[in-house]
Specification:
The protein has one domain. Helices cover about 70% and strands about 0% of the residues. It has a two-stranded antiparallel sheet.
């Protein structure tokens, strides 16, 4: 299994390559490319949210708490008095650090539900949905969610690569535990994630422009062409 530092470096590079490619082809603006790079980097460490390592867990929940507070400010700063905004941020901070974090530690095991493709899809859809609700365009929201899921997948791939001992051409016991469709030992949680995905998909923003941009052959021509 790769360590925290390796995961974040791998996700940073992978997301950076993808976001700069989309920037170079003018598919994304600089701001959008930067946000997508950030989303992919965070996605690359997200599966370790169920880690037994308190250091990794602390960093991950620190990032998630910061994003939750920032989202709270963005959503409410022009709607309610600033004193109430501060109060909401304090409540969000306490909820993330003392309620959500402890619930995660209690109900998850490492390489369980968080180390599955289902969790990666749910995380990407959640970011897409939240971004759209916060006022981003549908296309930008889908790109952000896609990059989060992309970084998530990079994490799982790296763990599987580390499960193979290439020097002795052998496979470690951990092989096959990083990439799985869902947690086969926890069907109830898998069903809950599937329901979450279905609900988010039904309320997701329009995706047609996003799909058209992703499958536009001109993008890939521009990547290898000097014109």
């Amino acid at each position: 299994m790769a360590n925290f530092k390796t995961h974040i470096q791998f996700a940073t590079v992978g997301s950076g390559l993808a976001s700069t490619a989309l920037l170079a082809t003018q598919t994304l603006s600089f701001k959008e490319a930067f946000m997508c790079w950030l989303a992919g980097t965070i996605g690359g460490i997200l599966p370790d949210i169920d880690s037994d390592n308190s250091y990794s867990l602390g960093i991950l929940f620190g990032i998630l708490t910061l994003l939750a507070c920032a989202s709270t400010i963005a959503y409410s700063v022009y709607k309610i008095p600033i004193v109430w905004v501060w109060g909401l941020c304090f409540l969000v901070y306490c909820a993330m650090q003392f309620v959500v974090r402890n619930l995660f530690k209690h109900f998850t095991i490492h390489r369980g539900v968080c180390h599955s493709l289902l969790a990666g899809i749910a995380a990407g859809l959640l970011l897409t949905w939240a971004s759209y609700k916060l006022g981003y365009t549908a296309t930008t929201s889908w790109f952000l969610g896609a990059f989060l899921s992309f970084g998530f997948l990079l994490h799982l791939l790296l763990d599987e690569i580390y499960s193979v001992d290439f020097m002795n051409v052998s496979v470690k016991r951990s092989f096959g535990t990083a990439i799985k469709l869902f947690d086969y030992n926890n069907i109830k949680t898998a069903l809950a994630l599937a329901i979450v995905i279905a609900v988010l998909a039904m309320d997701a923003p329009p995706y047609h422009t996003f799909i058209a941009k992703i499958f536009n052959p001109q993008i890939y021509v521009q990547l290898i062409s000097m014109d």
